[in-house]
Amino acid sequence: MSNISRDEVAHLAKLARMAVTEEELDTFAGQLDQILDAVAKVGEVAGDDIPPTSHAAALTNVFRTDEVRPGLSQDEALAGAPAAEEGRFRVPRILGEQQ
Amino acid sequence: MTTTAELMDYAEVVERYDPVLGLEVHVELSTDTKMFCGCPNSFGGDPNTHVCPVCLGLPGALPVVNGTAVESAIRIGLALNCDIAEWCRFARKNYFYPDMPKNFQTSQYDEPIAFDGHLDVVLDDGEVVRVDIERAHMEEDTGKSLHVGGATGRIHGAEHSLLDYNRAGVPLIEIVTKPITGMGERAPEVARAYVTALRDLLRAMDVSDVRMDQGSLRCDANVSLMAKGANEFGTRTETKNVNSLRSVERAVRYEMTRHAAILADGGSIKQETRHFQEADGTTAAGRTKETAEDYRYFPEPDLVPIAPTCEWVEQLRATIPELPWQRRKRIQEDWDLTDEELRDLVNTGAIDLVAATVDAGATQADARSWWVQYLNQQATSRETELADLTITPAQVARVIELVGSGELTNKLARQVVDGVLDGDGDPDQVIEKRGLKVVSDDSALLAAVDEALAAQPDVADKIRGGKVQAAGAIVGAVMKATKGQADAARVRELILERVGAA
């Protein structure tokens, strides 16, 4: 049985840059518990002979040749940006972190 | 904002502590296109002109892996004596930062394409150190930010930032060493020698431009100290923004002296990212590192696994060229060099350049002389590495050829080389532009000879009287009159002819 704590929900919310209220912390902790329990059931059914699956299609080595294809113009690229300046995307100042 | 850190004297540091290094080198591959889309992979360009829905992370866009980049990754792994994964996947590394428009970086997590290798590194005195390689994995580069406002264009005090995504999605190979221990006082030198060896290797394989100044080769240096006799590694810091080979050595050394002062004072090291400051050789605190868990890695659902067949890997193994250290060994034998001569060539970074110049047609002696002397001086005065000078071995060979054929004097040749270094084009273009050809037109030379003889009749008489060595003064006058653009030997012949002493 999983048991997600309020602190863990708060930490996840921070990583996901989501504002979560105090009440929501409890709600989401309970919901995440249920989701994890449901997923854990799969583990009960799958035997040791079943490898973990990440892809539904049994494909490998799908590659592209190294050839330039047309992309977007600067205007097209910036068309959806809330703010742009000097041909670049303008973003609010970056606080508290350095690259 | 920078507070001066307490530092311990280096000799004391290595007496009391053992350094442990871990080096992460990021290499931008020189493929034609990006890792997961067909946008051009080229340095520079107008901002946001090498972009498409995939590398901008627009909804619904699907990545497709660049096959050539995978081949380069496997070749790099093989050259580093790594095992190649029989099956591996890409993973999403989730974090928010404006230089990454998708809000995750497509990388590899616990299934790198290459792992468990080594690189033998030769130190300045010829000692060989084996650096074990943990892994080499594939990922993509981020965009570039420009911080606006504030005094220095730095992130602190900036009012906002501007993003150019031309570099976002450029294929990147991250090569990670295992902990490098037991190096003692030579740790900083080992770090530089390792990155140098890696750069030479990647250059020989032609998989990357490996320009540290342009960021196509970047090194993050993890440094920790443990007290002599201790068994557990200390807490490490990761120094980024190390943009030259020399800086690698300086950054490691600085962090060692900084850690030691804190530890000796009873303090503890904070695990954090630090930024190397080129100007004063110090480091400044950056962000506290997120843990691997915080990145919530999971297998990339949009890319299927990569499963290189044995045949494919063996085909790629066959394409690996003669590696720099093998080449050096062969060159030493071919050129009959002493260990010391070889080391001088290697330490100035000249050996591969000399070899390439010889391959382009120059004699070994001429090629060595140009690179080790004049060009090495130029590199020093231009504060760059020999290999980063903007002249190619083929261009040097051309200059040597022109000297050999008498079209350039040594003095003119140096001016031609200066022109090439200044960006005026090929040697022939520089000669054309700057009018540097030797005056080989005898009639023009004869006029200058006659003038010089007339100006110094006593010297002319001496020559006539059999004192042939007196011709030197006339040669000098003619060279001066032609601004050094005459072939001194030819001038001498003409003088002797003219006074009838020939």
TrEMBL record, chain A:
User: From which domain of life does this come?
Assistant: Bacteria
Q: Which Pfam families match?
A: GatC
SUPFAM superfamilies according to UniProt: Glu-tRNAGln amidotransferase C subunit (SSF141000)
Classification via InterPro entries: Asp/Glu-ADT_sf_sub_c (IPR036113), GatC (IPR003837)
Give its E.C. classification number. 6.3.5.-
Under the heading Gene3D superfamilies, the entry gives:
Glu-tRNAGln amidotransferase C subunit, N-terminal domain
Its keywords, alphabetically, are: ATP-binding, Ligase, Nucleotide-binding, Protein biosynthesis
Query: Coiled coil: which residue ranges?
Result: none
Name the catalysed reactions: L-aspartyl-tRNA(Asn) + L-glutamine + ATP + H2O = L-asparaginyl-tRNA(Asn) + L-glutamate + ADP + phosphate + 2 H(+); L-glutamyl-tRNA(Gln) + L-glutamine + ATP + H2O = L-glutaminyl-tRNA(Gln) + L-glutamate + ADP + phosphate + H(+)
What does the record give as the function of this protein? Allows the formation of correctly charged Asn-tRNA(Asn) or Gln-tRNA(Gln) through the transamidation of misacylated Asp-tRNA(Asn) or Glu-tRNA(Gln) in organisms which lack either or both of asparaginyl-tRNA or glutaminyl-tRNA synthetases. The reaction takes place in the presence of glutamine and ATP through an activated phospho-Asp-tRNA(Asn) or phospho-Glu-tRNA(Gln).
Q: HAMAP family of this UniProt entry?
A: GatC
Could you describe the subunit structure of this protein?
A: Heterotrimer of A, B and C subunits.
Per the record, the similarity remark reads: Belongs to the GatC family.
Protein's name according to its UniProt entry: Aspartyl/glutamyl-tRNA(Asn/Gln) amidotransferase subunit C
Q: Which organism is it from?
A: Prauserella alba
Recorded name of the encoding gene: gatC
Automatic annotation (TrEMBL), chain B:
Return the SUPFAM superfamilies for the record.
GatB/YqeY motif, Glutamine synthetase/guanido kinase
A Pfam family assignment: GatB_N
- Group of enzyme by EC: ligase
Q: Which Gene3D superfamilies match?
A: 1.10.10.410
Q: Which residues form the Asn/Gln amidotransferase domain?
A: 352-499
Keyword annotations for this protein? ATP-binding, Hydrolase, Ligase, Nucleotide-binding, Protein biosynthesis
The protein's annotated catalytic reaction(s) are: L-glutamyl-tRNA(Gln) + L-glutamine + ATP + H2O = L-glutaminyl-tRNA(Gln) + L-glutamate + ADP + phosphate + H(+); L-aspartyl-tRNA(Asn) + L-glutamine + ATP + H2O = L-asparaginyl-tRNA(Asn) + L-glutamate + ADP + phosphate + 2 H(+)
Record carries keyword Secreted: no
Protein's UniProt keywords contain Nucleotide-binding: yes
Q: Provide the E.C. number(s) assigned to this enzyme.
A: 6.3.5.-
Known role = Allows the formation of correctly charged Asn-tRNA(Asn) or Gln-tRNA(Gln) through the transamidation of misacylated Asp-tRNA(Asn) or Glu-tRNA(Gln) in organisms which lack either or both of asparaginyl-tRNA or glutaminyl-tRNA synthetases. The reaction takes place in the presence of glutamine and ATP through an activated phospho-Asp-tRNA(Asn) or phospho-Glu-tRNA(Gln).
Q: How does it assemble?
A: Heterotrimer of A, B and C subunits.
Family membership? Belongs to the GatB/GatE family. GatB subfamily.
Protein name, UniProt field: Aspartyl/glutamyl-tRNA(Asn/Gln) amidotransferase subunit B
**Origin species:** Prauserella alba
The gene coding this protein:
gatB
